[in-house]
TrEMBL record:
SUPFAM superfamilies: L domain-like, P-loop containing nucleoside triphosphate hydrolases, Toll/Interleukin receptor TIR domain, Winged helix' DNA-binding domain. Residues 91-253 form the TIR domain. Residues 1-59 are annotated as: Disordered. Residues 46-55 have a biased composition (Gly residues). The keyword Cell cycle does not apply. This is TIR domain-containing protein. The keyword Cell cycle does not apply. GO terms for molecular function: ADP binding. GO terms for biological process: defense response; signal transduction.
Amino acid sequence: MVEKKRRPEAEAEASGVEPRTELLNGGGSGGGPRDDEPKKRRKGGGDGSEGGGKSGSIIDNAQSYELATRVGYQVVASPSKIQEMEKPMEPYHEVFLSFRGSDTHRDITDYLYHSLVDAGIRAYRDDEELRVGKDIGPELLQAIKQSKISIPIFSKQYAASKWCLMELVQMVECKEKWGQEIMPIFYDVEPSEVRKQTRTYGEAIQSHVNKQLYTNETIQNWKAALNKVGKLKGWELKERGKGEFTKEIVQKLLIELKKNYLAVTNCLVEMDDQVDQIMEKIGEQTTGTKIVGIYGMGGVGKTTLATILYNKLLADFDNCCFLSNIRETKIVSLQNQLISDVLRKECPSIKSINEGITEIKNRLSSKKVLLLLDDVDQNTQLEALVGTGECWFSRGSKVIITTRDKELLKVVDFQHELTEMDFGHSLQLFSRHAFGRDSPPAEYVSLSQKAVEICGHLPLALEIIGSLLHRNDINKWKNVLKKLETIPNEKVKNKLNISFEALETQEQEIFLDVCCFFVGFNVRIVTYMWDSCEFFPECSLEVLKQRSLIKIAKGNQLWVHDQLRDLGRVIVRERAREKQSRVWDHEEAIDVLETEETAENLKVLNLTDCKNLLRTPNFSAHQKLEQLILEGCRELVQVDRSIGELKHLVLLNLKYCGKLHTLPDEMEELEALTELLVDHTSITNIPEWKGMEKLETLGAAYCRLLSECNLAGCSTSLSYLNFTSTGISELPFGNFGSLIELNLCWTKIRELPNSIETMKNLRVLRLSHSILEKLPSALGMLEELEEIEAGDCQFLYGEIPTEIRRLSFLKILRLTGTGISNIPKLPESMTELYLTGNRRMRCPDLSNLLNLRVLVLEVKYQNPFDLAPSLNWIGELRKLESLWLGGDGLVTLPSNFNLLAKLRKLKLVLNSLGCLPWLPQNLSYFHFVGQQLMSINLSYLGKLLELKDDGCEQLIKIQDLEHLKNLQRLDLANLPLLVKLPDLTGLKKLWSLAIVGCPKLVEVRGHLESLKELYLEKCESLAKLLDPLTFKHIENLDISRCPKLKKIQGLENSENLIDLCLWGLPLLDKLLDLTNNKELEHLDLYDCPCLVEIRGRLESLKGLDIFKCRSLRKFSDPSSFKKLQYSSIEDCEKLEEILKSDEYRYLKKVRVGGYHRHGYVRRGSRRRDIELEW
C-alpha cells in the first residue's frame, strides 16, 4: 500500500557527476509504439514499458489518464490502448509528501505519514537527503505526477534544499496542467514568509543565487512556485498538538479522495479555449450559485465538455452528483439518485415527483452542490431537479446542464453553444480513432481528409467512422467512404434522428425543405413561401435554431450541418417512391417527370445546374407542384406555357438561367405564387401580372438588360424587391405599402420620388453605387426604417435631411464615399454608422449615440486654417465594439479614449498622430497606419489576437512585442526604418506572420512553435530567419525579394508544408532535402538564378511553377511526381534540355519555353491581409 523510495548511495553532489536520467515521453497518444511501427522491447521489461511496468510514458497509466481528463482535453486513444490504460500501474499514490528531512523527518512528517497509512491512504514519502545528481529522477517525477494530492511541508530550511524546490515546481506544473491538488502545511513558518520569500526563505534563495550553479530562469521558477503555493489555503501548526492537527488533515484528505472524477471519453483533443471561457463565468473565482447551459446538436461533444468542467470544479465541492442520460430516465429515479449521491447514503425511495421536489428542497437546501444534468430535453426535468426559479441548493453551488434545446436554458446564468470542431482538430480526433495517433500515415492523408469532410467535423461521427475504418486497408476505406457520401452511418443517423422525431409536423416539413433545397438561401426569401403554406415559419425556424438543427449564418443565410442535411435527405428517400414529394437531384428529377404514377404527388422539383435542359417539360400532370427550382440551368431558353396551370406553385426559381430572355404571359395565372427569382437572367422586361396578387418576393438582381418593369398588379403584396445592377432608371409605379426591403444598388436611378413616403413598412433601403443625387425629405416619413445603405453614391451631395431624426428605429446608416457635407443629429437608436471619404464633411457630434456598436469615421480638414476637429465625445460611446478612425487633421486622441471597455476591433489611420494614447485593454484586433509614429509599446494589450502595423514611415522599433502572449496574427508592412524586432519566442500562439516592405530589417529571431504561415517580401537586408524548429509545423511559406537570404534552415523538417513559394532570391543556391515534405502540393520558384537542384520525393505535388531559374539542372527524383496536375517551366535553359527524358514522364503537361509570359499571375502567394470586418 505504501512505498518509501530509497536510492542507493552514489557520488556526492559536489563531484559534479550527473546520473543518467531517462527522458519521459509525454505524447498525447500514450507514448507507446504506434500502430504502424514495430514494438520495441525496452530495457528491463518485456511489455514495452521500462522496469517491468514502471512508466516509460507519463500518460501510460490509469492515474495519469484520470488526471489528464481534468485538464481541458478530450481523451483520445485507439481502441487497442483502452485496456492498457485501464490497468493501474504500480506504484500508485494518492498523496505525495514533500519535506526537508533534517527539519521534520522525525516529527510531523513521520506522524502524518503513519496516520495516512492507518487511514488506508496510499502515500509516497520521499527522502531528499538520499538524492544525488542535479535533476529529479524519473521515478520521483512519476510519483508526483501520479499522485492526486501533493502536500509540501514548509519548514524553516525547506527552501534551502534544491530538491524540495524542484519538487515544488513540479507540483505547480501538475496543478496548472492537470488540476492536481496542492495542500500546503506551514510547519514552523508563516505563509507570508513562503509567499514573499522573507526571513529564512529569502536567505535560502539568495544562497542559491550566490552559488551561481543555477540559471536565472531556474531561480525565478523556484520563487514563482513559492509565491503561488504560499497563497493557497493550507494548514498552520502553530500551537496545536500533532494528534489533533494530523487528524484534521486526514479527515480532509479522505473527503477529497472519495470524490469520483468522471471518466472522459477516450479522445484527447484540446478544448482549452471553451473550458476557459466557461470557467471564467462559473469557476472558483465566482461567488453565488451559478447555472451554465451547454447546447448544441447531437454528437457535437456537449457531454465531454461538461464532464471536463465537472472534473475541474470537483475539488471545491464535498457534495456532487452526475445525472446522465436524463432523456431516457424517469424523473423520480433521477430525484432518488440526486439525494443519495449528495448525502452519500441510501435514502428512503421517493414515490412521486412532488415528493421528490419537497425532499430535495428540505434535505439539500443547506448543501453546496456540484450537479451535472446531462441531455435534458424537457422543462419538467429541470423543475423537478433544480427548480426554474431560485436554485434550491446553498450559495456557491454550480449546476451544469447539457441539452439540444436552447429554449430550455432560459433559467441559466450563462449559455454556451458548442459547434463542430475546426478541420485540424477534427483530423486529429479522427486519426486517433482510425490509427491510434495524431495524424494519418502519408498514404492515408487524402482519404482521411475526405472522411473528415464527410463527417462534417462532428465528434460523434468522427469517432464512429474512425473506429469503423480502424485497421482496414485502402480499398476498404474507399468503399466505405463512397457509401458514406450518400448514406449516413446508421449509428450516427440514429443519434441525430432523436432531434428530428421530437419536432412537430410543420417543423419537420420546414427542416426537410431546408435540407433538400434551401441551404445558403436568405431566410427572408424562403419565409414568404412557407408563409403561403401556412407553416408559421418564424416560430418553426426558432424551434429549429433552439434545438441546434439549423443556424442562421452571416448574411441571414440558412445553414445546416452536413450530417443533418444528409439525414433529412435520407428521411425523404426512405418514404415510398410513389409518395415522394421532394426531388433535388436533377437526373432523378427527370426520371420522376417521365413517370406518370409519381407525377401527381410531386410537390418540389429541383433541377439545379441541369446542363442539358433547353425547355421545361409540360407541367400539366404536376398539379400539386409547389416549388419549381431551375437555378443554374444555363442552356434554358424557354419556360413552357403550361406553367400557368400550376395553381399551387408558391416558388419559381430561375436564377442564373443566362439564356432566358422572356417569360410566358401565362405566368400571371400563378395565383398562389409568393416568390419569383429571376436574378442573373437576360430578361428585358417584367409585364403587368395582374393575377399574382400574392407575390411577396421579386428578385431580379443582375438582370442587366432589364429596363422596364410594371408591378401595378402585385405591388400591394410585395415585401421584398431587388433590382440590383439592372437598367432600371426609375422606381416602378405602384402602391408598395407592404414593402419591407428595397434594393436599388448599382441602378440608374437619380432620384427617389416623394411617393416613397407611402412605403410605411419599409425597413431596409439599399442605394449603394447608384447615381442618386439627393436623399428626399420624405425619408423621415418611413417610421419603420432600420437601415439605409448609400455607400459610394458619388453623385450624392448636399445634406442629409434633418427629418432623419424622426426615424426612431434606425440602426444602420452607411454613407461612405459620398459628397454629403453635413450630418444632422441622428436618432439615438443607431448601432452602426459609416462616414468616410468626403473632404467636405464637417466632423459630426455623435455624443447622443450611446447605443453605437460600430463606428467608421474619417475626419478631414475643410481647409488648412481649420482647427483640429474635437472628438471628446468618443469616450462616452461605452457600447462601442468596433472603431475605424481616420483623418489627416487629428494629432491627438481624447484622453478618455481608453474608457471604451467593450472595444474589440480598432483601426487607426492617422498620419499626423505622433504617439499612441493608452488604448482599451480588451482589444482583440488592432490595425494602425501612421506616418509620424516613431515607437510603439503595446505590451499591456494582453488579449490582442491580431496586430497590423502599416505605413509607419518613421517607426524605428516596436517595444515588448514578445509580451503579447495571445497574439495569433502579426502583419508588419511598409516600415522603411525598422531595423530589428525583439525575439518572438514568447508568442506561443502566433500562427501567421507577414513582414512586407521592411528594407532595413536584418533578421527575424525566435522559435514560433505554432507558426503555420510565414510571408516575407521586400526585406532587402534580411539575412537570417527564425529558429529552424519554427518550420516544423509550417503549412504556407512565401518568401520573395529578399536578396541577401542565402538559405532557409529547417525547411527539411517541415512535415506539414503545403505551399512553398520562393521569388527573387539570387543567393539561394540549393533547397535542402524536401523528402520529409510529404504534404507539399504547390511549389513556385521564380528568379532564383543560383538554384542548381531540387532534392527530395515530392509525392503530393500537384502544381509546379518555375521561372528564370537558369542554373537549375535537375530534380533528384522526378518519378515521384505522380499527382502532378499542372506545371509551367520557363526560362530555365539547363532544365529544359533534360525534360524530354523518360524519367520526366510525369511532366508531360509541362509548359516550357524561354519566352516572357504575358500577364503571368503569381499563384504561390497565400498571404491574407488582416482586414477587419466593419
